[in-house]
Amino acid sequence: MFKFLFDSDTWQEIYGGIRKNKTRTVITIIGVLWGIFLLVVLLGAARGMENNFKNLFGDFATNSVFMWAQRTEKPFKGFQKGRRIRLTTSDIEILKREHQDIKYLAPRSQTNTNIINGFKSGEFNISGDYPVLDKVQKKDLIYGRFINNNDITNKSKVIVIEETAYKQLYEKDEFPIGQYVIVDNINYKVVGVYKRGNIGIDGEAAYIPFTTFQQVYNRGNNIDWMMVTGDTGVDIKQLESDIKLTLKNLHKVDPEDNRAFGSFNLAVRINKVTGFLTGMQFLTWFVGIATLIAGVFAIGNILLITVKERTKEIGIRRALGATPIEIRQQVVLESVFLTTVAGMLGIVFGGFILYILDTTVGSGPDPTLLNPTVNIPIILFAFFILVVLGTLIGLIPAYMATLVKPIEALREE
User: Fold this and answer.
1) Residue 146 pLDDT more than 90?
2) Residue 343 contacts residue 36 (beta carbons within 8 Å)
3) Helices (H), 69-207
4) How far apart are CA 107 and CA 127, in angstroms?
5) Which pLDDT value is given to residue 1?
6) How many whole angstroms separate alpha carbon 191 and alpha carbon 26?
7) Would you say 191 and 158 are in contact if contact means Cβ atoms under 8 Å apart?
8) Which of 23-37, 40-54, 314-328, 367-381 has the lowest mean pLDDT?
């Protein structure tokens, strides 16, 4: 077999057969090439979308839900509908105690006001938070630190500002840590500067300790909203429903009132996108493999026609002593050669298109596809499948070639 594989006469005959049917051979190669090209490009694009999605939500604990209070929709126990509900810090303590599946719970209060540094100022969202926020939504710090427990205990006048605020309030490369800014006539010491995430739920924000915020803005026991993160494996949708039911009991709200408490379930949204990406990958494999199979069948058809056209030649070879095995090996080798060349070209062209996508829609501050690539093992697996299919499909015309009778072949015109 290996001697036959490295026989120059064998390759000359294969080359001669391909040269006689140039147009047909090119069309056949394009069919197989298109299949693996499509598979590579679609898999790369799907990976790029997945990478971009992970990059967008990478700062968040994905098993999270955001919750806030609204107005009641139904009257209940003597209260009229349209009653305004307020979340409180005591609600937070009760939720932590009654729902063991909660991993992190971050109560939050916010306002919008000016931050002043000398002659520079800007309007930003000021948020009162606990250190746990850094676990729910990890902050990418450029300078300094985030709020800590000592800040909460001491009601410290410290502030962590976002990069946009830093650029607006300070000179380029000016070190802000330890300097003071003025917020509503109160001096705050800058202890950190962070880079805004890909999805900023707070906009251009600055953070101060929750206890400081409540005292300065006279919020008392009230909070604006909260972020809840469930333990690993917890059904966050069920946890969301359980928390709402607890809050309805605490605030005397009809259990069937769906307007009193609003929420945004990040985990549900992420699962929907993840499901879409999984479906897209499945569709990509289906379309790519189906196209590969169609191209391989085209090679089989070409070789069947080639065998028929070369009946006389095969008869002469048989008459000169060529065995059926040698005839079969040559036809199969031609099939494998065509599929291999087409597969390699498809991979090269597919990689080139992914490179173009990466340098165009995959770059910049808001990329559509982030690092659209395909793993080498996947490429090798697809190429292996292609060669195996090329070998199997080549067995059909190879078998037909061995059926040629030398005497009958020589009588062919």
Assistant:
1) yes
2) yes
3) 89-98, 133-136, 149-154, 163-169
4) 10
5) 47
6) 67
7) yes
8) 314-328
- Percent pLDDT > 90 in the chain is 29
**Does residue 200 sit in helix, strand or coil?**
coil
* Res 143: pLDDT: 92
What are 312's two structure tokens? 């006389």
One-letter identity of residue 111: T
Rounded mean pLDDT, 53-58: 64
Burial class of residue 74 (count of CB atoms within 10 Å of its CB; 0-12, 13-18, 19+): middle
The tokens 């710090």 sit on which residue?
141
Closest CA to 128 of 159, 167, 104: 159
> DSSP H helical segments within 310-412, as ranges?
311-319, 324-359, 376-402, 406-411
Lowest mean pLDDT across 6-15, 102-111, 351-360 = 6-15
| CB within 8 Å of 313: residues ≥ 6 apart | none
- pLDDT of 225 above 80: yes
Instruction: List the end-to-end C-alpha distance of the chain, in Å, as a whole number.
Output: 32
Token couple for 180: 């003071």
Count of residues for the chain? 413
Write the DSSP assignment of 335-352 as a string of letters. Answer: HHHHHHHHHHHHHHHHHH
Residue with the two structure tokens 């919008």: 112
Residue 162's CB is within 10 A of a number of other CB atoms, namely 25
Q: Residues 95-117, buried b or exposed e (16+ Cβ, 10 A)? A: beeebeebbbbbbbbbbeeebbb
What is d(CA 163, CA 170) in angstroms, rounded to the nearest whole number? 10
Its sign, for the CA torsion 313, 317, 322, 324, is: positive
Q: What is the arithmetic mean of pLDDT over 343-357?
A: 87
**C-alpha closest to that of 57 among 137, 135, 139:** 137
Residue 247: both structure tokens together: 């809050």
Top pLDDT among 8 and 380 is at: 380
CA-nearest of 290, 299, 312, 278 to 392 is 299
Quote the tokens at residue 177: 């840590």
Tell me which amino acid residue 345 is.
L
Sign of CA dihedral 340, 343, 349, 352: negative
Of residues 29, 17, 34, the one with CA closest to residue 397: 17
Q: Which residue has the higher pLDDT, 327 or 175?
A: 175
